Amino acid sequence: MTLDTILDSGDASLYDIRTKVPGPKGSLPLTAEMLLQRPSGDLFGWTQNAGMGWDPSKLAGAEFLLLSTHGGIRAEDGAPIALGYHTGHWEVGLLMQEAARELKVHGAVPFAGYCTDPCDGRSQGTTGMFDSMPFRNDAATIFRRLIRSLPTRRGVIGVATCDKGLPAMMMALAGTRDLPCVLIPGGVTLLAEDGEDAGRVQTIGARFSHQQISLQEAADMGCRACASPGGGCQFLGTAATAQVVAEALGMSLTHSALAPSGHPIWLDMAKRSARAMLSLQDRGLRMRDILTPGALRNAMVVHAAFGGSTNVIIHLAAVAYHAGIPRPTAHDWNQINRQIPRLVDALPNGPKHHPTVQVFLAGGVPEVMLHLRNAGLLDLTALTASGQTMGEALDWWEHSERRAKLREVLRTRDGVDPDDVIMSPEEATRRGMTSTVCFPHGNLAPQGSVIKSTSIDPSVVDADGVYRKVGTAKVFHTEPAAIAAIKNKQIEAGDIIVLACRGPMGSGMEETYQLTSALKHLPFGKHVALITDARFSGVSTGACIGHVSPEALAGGPLGKVLDGDIIEIIVDRNNLEGSLNLVGADGYQFGAFVGAKVLMSRPMRDDLHADKDLPEDTKLWAALQDIGGGAWGGCVYETEKILKVIEAGKRAMGLL
User: Fold this and answer.
1) Topology annotation, domain 60-190+228-426
2) Would the pLDDT of 517 be above 90?
3) Measured in Å, how far apart are the chain's first and last C-alpha atoms?
4) Catalytic one among 68, 123, 252, 537?
5) What is the pTM of this model?
């Protein structure tokens, strides 16, 4: 490559430039009333539509907006021209095409807009994670602005798949209360026939450092884990959980979550979702009619039954806020989880670790909801994207050909009994499956914390169903320092890793899957606990306690813990009660009561600080979401509260 080839291609045909062309044929279907009454933007919009090639005679059809997180550039044959950030958004453009074509068949005029999303797996252990949670808020804002920027749209279809793009889309649609909206989930990728799932494969570095695998094994497994080009990861992480919760809310069609990306059944879902949009618009059903307190409770119950990601506790609060309904509290989550054990055996929770596509074949969300209906735990009057009530949708599912045929596919093709994937509460209890989440409090977490208690390794849980651990603290203030200690064999069985300064103010509340995955897949890992003010990937398992509040940089006691301190963790997986306490120091154990006094008398550590690479954008996000209630409030921007705080600050500073 030379400077000459950069400055000029040397192609004389490039200079054949026209300044005028005939323009589109035909004429706009305008009326005198439109010219007199409609804003110029509406009229010029039709001019733009004709310019882009739409048949002018068909411009009077109802306009609908399709939004998605599509990323990358695919050739017609699916080959990559430019890669996306992840498989989750690589194929969703196909769903957009299918839905748009269906709208066009029915005389509607579809529009499409995009805001792509990052990959939490790709950014694990990097500074890219500092933008993960803030991105969700930014993307939701962009989606809402795109919706408002097309004033003539009659409804909105959102297409999204993964950890932040899908919650952002849910927040945007929830805030579009006076329009009909339908969410199309992007589905899941498939497992390799001979390989590891996308969660386990993220531990190849840690396992190699402990001589668990060879360099060639790491290279081979790393190549195959994302076995098909589209869809979210094969485990019940944040992406899959958000798909499940969206369907339980009624935002998506029945049995749409976790469909295998690229398959005809996946494309068919998009076509039927477009039909649902037209039906909702004809019937005058809006998003506010679907997202109700009853729908929210249904979603929480389904989350508990699936054993969903703890990140969705944050996201569901944000969806509720934008829908204008009360946000769930830790007390609400506790009450629901006490009513139902986990009913789904899927990656990463186990015990048999079925991939999400097998959960789909076993019946997915509606199959789980049949068991929940029988237990009397659902609001069956809540509306769904089809316009049916939840009760009507479940009646259809129970007797549908779709249910019977897909469950038979799972039996015959994979040799898996669907009732081993999704089971009744009685059978789940018999197999030792426990409720999903618990919210430990104590002198180290006075405002609470969260643990996916169902995913603690049963071999370290006492016979009475209680996990008890007393261990020595090893304190870190960055995830790279902690993972280096694991790889360098400085962490051993019995330790309690304390990772502070990684909450919203310190790192944008990063995920710490590098740590939790390494501990899961190293032989001694189940005997190590992790405590942090950060959050965890939805695929995390083990004795990992996150969202510790207040965070260290907000004055939380986690910022006072010293190397060698003795910490006690108790998690009752049956009664969903837990505690997290400093109980000793300097080789002496003195109990939680004295531990609280010790913490009160200790100064904050003098080495606490936000990450040196924390972006200014993320610092602003951390400050604004804190006013709206922080992680427990969904990390949202409560505009009125923010304005009041700014006004109070201006007055205090003499600026008003």
Assistant:
1) Rossmann fold (3.40.50)
2) no
3) 60
4) 537
5) 0.97
